[in-house]
Amino acid sequence: MDIKPIRSEADYETALKTIEQLWDATHGSPEADKLDVLVTLVEAYEEMHYPIPPPDPIEAILHYMESQGLSEPDLEVYLGSHTCVSEVLSRERALSLNMIRKLHKGLGIPADILVQPYTQIDEVAD
Q1: Nearest to 5 by CA among 50, 64, 45, 58
Q2: Which of 6, 47, 49, 107 is the Cys-Cys partner for 11 at CB 3.0 to 4.6 Å?
Q3: Which CATH superfamily is domain 57-125 in?
Q4: Considering the entire predicted model, what is its pTM?
Q5: How far apart are CA 85 and CA 114, in angstroms?
């Protein structure tokens, strides 16, 4: 197995091409072992060079609403009144710690996503 660390973009591209060639390798074969190692190396390289930032909290809530078929009234139990829900989703009001806790506990939205800083309407106007 001729595998070496991924140190450059050229190494990365070569590893991706090799992964594509090995993708259908038979489980337990030397080719499948090589595929597993290359995937691990590529993931480590991507994590270091192409980090994915956490999603915007409001976008995460909107995505969750869409994927679960929820509407704004469904969020009232977590965010407060209809007006409060509307203000949060339109970025006119910040999520409070209590709202974050309720969204996390009630809907399972990860708290580490909800606590991320995000742009509010008044910040855009400044």
Answers
A1: 45
A2: 6
A3: lambda repressor-like DNA-binding domains (1.10.260.40)
A4: 0.62
A5: 15
